[in-house]
Design goal:
By secondary structure, the chain is mostly beta strands. The protein is about 0% helix and about 50% strand. The N and C termini lie far apart (about 40 Å).
């Protein structure tokens, strides 16, 4: 089993930046992949991006491409979501998730989830 804990959320003005962290512990898989999702009030959970075990493969949703960047530091067992040029519509609870099998944007294929961290963008 893998445990995931997000941190780094908070209040930020539009145009500003935040970096979210997701620390992983417990059992891991040799082909572990990590994804970021978000969920705004009254909306379904939305895919943000994913990253492969080595970090050599990343993919970002159209809504955040060019503004958000996923990275990871395996020495610290941590994945990051760097968020720049934040907009009010980025306001949501952000979740990290782990998949031991595939790189995917489908949340149903992720095995483990963090508790979420709130990001609120003000103007």
């Amino acid at each position: 089993q893998v445990q995931l804990v997000e941190s780094g959320g908070g209040l930020v003005q539009a145009g500003g930046s935040l970096r979210l962290s997701c620390a992983a512990s417990g059992s891991t898989f040799s082909s572990d992949a990590m994804g970021w999702f978000r969920q705004a009030p009254g909306k379904e959970r939305e895919f943000v991006g994913y990253i492969s075990w080595t970090g050599s493969t990343t993919f970002h949703a159209d809504s955040v491409r060019g503004r958000f960047t996923i990275s990871r530091d395996n020495g610290k067992n941590t994945v990051y979501l760097q968020m720049n040029s934040l907009k009010r519509e980025d306001t949501a609870v952000y979740y990290c998730a782990a998949s031991g099998r595939v790189l995917t944007s489908n949340p149903s294929l992720y095995d483990y989830w963090g508790q979420g961290t709130q990001v609120t963008v003000l103007s």
